[in-house]
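[step 3/7] fold_predict: job queued, chain A
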Amino acid sequence: MSRINLVTVEQANEQQQVLYTAIEQQLGMVPNFLKVFANSPAALKAFLGLHTIASEGELDAKTKERIALGLAEQNSCQYCVSAHTAIGRKAGLTGDEMIANRAGSSQDAKAAVAVKFSRSLAEKNGEVTTAELLEIRNVGYRDAEIVEIITHVGMNILTNILGKASRVEIDFPKVDLKKAS
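[step 4/7] structure written:
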């Protein structure tokens, strides 16, 4: 049971209803973690705005999901691992690829560096080394993509924290964490 209220569709005020309608049109559902965000329509709008902007970038959907899976496992967020496993499948990731992502790597050499860099950003609170920046550039990521990776790290840390703090009920096929939480 969630430790922070989930604003149900029935409980939602007019502003929340408008946001829920937009979410449902895009996703076909309103995930529970967004119902937690909806306690503050301002926070929900901020998250949706960041998510919309981040989805318009140059990183491909598979790489975004690889990053999300790597961070969710690193941060022990079962809700996020479960959600991004479902989303990753829709993006075309295989089961073996998602296992590699959750372990901090990828079967794709370029994406492996992005996942590794993302986890390092989170672990070191952004204090990555010059060598790490050179490594990600040397596999072909440009500064625009590096900034997008940093943006996705921030966005995923936010959702990992929300998922863990609220202990929101998982409304995706449940996936167990690899490490103890």
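[step 5/7] annotate
The domain at 61-166 is CATH 1.20.1290.10 (AhpD-like).
The chain has two domains: 14-55, 61-166.
exit 0
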